[in-house]
Amino acid sequence: MKVTVVGAGAVGASCAEYIAIKDFASEVVILDIKEGYAEGKAMDLMQTASLNGFDTKITGSTSDYSKTAGSDIAVITSGIPRKPGMTREELIGINAGIVKTVAQNLVKESPNVILIVVSNPMDTMTYLAHKVTGLPKNRIIGMGGALDSARFKYRLAEALEAPISDIDGMVIGGHSDTGMVPLASQATRNSVRVSEFISEDRLQQVVEDTKVGGATLTKLLGTSAWYAPGAAVSALVQAIACDQKKMFPCSTMLDGEYGLSDICIGVPVILGKNGIEKIVDVPLSDAEKAKMKESAEGVKKTNGLLDV
Ligand SMILES: NC(=O)C1=CN([C@@H]2O[C@H](COP(=O)(O)OP(=O)(O)OC[C@H]3O[C@@H](n4cnc5c(N)ncnc54)[C@H](O)[C@@H]3O)[C@@H](O)[C@H]2O)C=CC1
Ligand SMILES: O=C([O-])CC(=O)C(=O)O
Predict the structure, then answer these.
(1) What integer pLDDT is reported at residue 308 of this predicted model?
(2) Could you tell me if residue 308 is inside a domain?
């Protein structure tokens, strides 16, 4: 199993580290345009191998895509992150050009690759990857909902004063400050609805904190987050590499599902060796349906800024 990670920055390096530590991939190639940067990150990570007990071989490349040839999975994290006060959508001007070139270069070297798009604005970058590569829809996956759901569970555990392992919950919709749809009415603590444990107001606060999870961290860090994003990407990569058939909300091209078409947006999917193996239709309340529709309108507006 060969995995390429494009972008050796904060998220790319974190994701490569988690993949290596889990020790399921034979090879990870990190690629960046900054001279020597990916090679340096790869060497540093390899020097953790005997300490962390993994055999994954990590190598770096400065813009040489021939080193990525034959990748089974490629993760696109290249591009700029936001600064405090910015929205993810504001990154489109720079990141669209980067994601377009990177996706095309990856597919040229690895025609059977499964792409995982991370660069923001992620739903629109996932849509762009479709338009510029023409890969089948099961092989292009946007990572956002897995991270947003992890943040939702963190906030729920905090509110319920419960261990996170007791909590289950999911966030669908667009990966944006306003577009996320945390499915609060369906979240549970060991099968019991979380509304049995906290007030409606507290639950609403959890929802709002979840939606601005990325912005909150950006304000604290001065740039956007990387540990949880890296862990979320590595979980998707592992589900595909190990054919786990796990369910995650991911951004995927919809063709009528959830009443939406010609859009990539977060919905629950089953991930296995073929990438997205199934889109799961979860029954939504009328309020959740309305939020999903509004979220899709936002993503479509951003897609409209693309030159495709
Ligand atoms: N979808 C999600 O849930 C998340 C998305 N992100 C997004 O991921 C992206 C990366 O974030 P960070 O790693 O924090 O940024 P970073 O600035 O630390 O790293 C980005 C790297 O991309 C490289 N790069 C730029 N153009 C390139 C090109 N054409 N080819 C190869 N490499 C190139 C840069 O040299 C840099 O090393 C941002 O767009 C950010 O908004 C970040 C966190 C979560
Ligand atoms: O907030 C950002 O810009 C980065 C991101 O997508 C996240 O951490 O959710």
Answers:
(1) 85
(2) no
Q: Of residues 153, 175, 189, 291, which has the active-site annotation?
A: 175
Please work out whether the CB of residue 61 comes within 6 Å of at least one atom of ligand 1: no
Q: What angle do CA 245, 288, 170 make, to 5 degrees?
A: 35
* Nearest CA residue ID for atom 36, ligand 1: 9
Ligand 2 touching residue 120 (CB < 6 A): yes
Spatial contact of 153 and 168, defined as CB atoms under 8 Å apart: yes
Alpha-carbon distance 119 to 143, whole Å?
A: 9
Q: Are residues 204 and 278 in the same domain?
A: yes
Average pLDDT over residues 294-305: 98
Catalytic annotation present for 175: yes
**CB 77 less than 6 A from any atom of ligand 1:** yes
Q: What are 229's two structure tokens?
A: 């994003």
Q: Which ligand is closest to the CA of 125, given by its number?
A: 1
The sheet with strand 192-193 has its strands ordered as 167-168, 188-189, 192-193
Q: Containing H/E element for 181?
A: strand 180-182
CATH number, position 28: 3.40.50.720
pLDDT in tens, 275-292: 999 999 999 999 999 999
Give, for ligand 2, the residue of 87, 117, 120 to mutate: max count of ligand atoms closer than 8 Å to Cβ.
Answer: 120
Question: Based on the domain organization, do 10 and 72 belong to the same domain?
Answer: yes
Residues 84 and 172 in one domain: no
Mean pLDDT of 110-137: 98
Q: Is the pTM of this model over 0.95?
A: yes
- 54-102 per-position pLDDT tens digit: 999 999 999 999 999 999 999 999 999 999 999 999 999 999 999 999 9
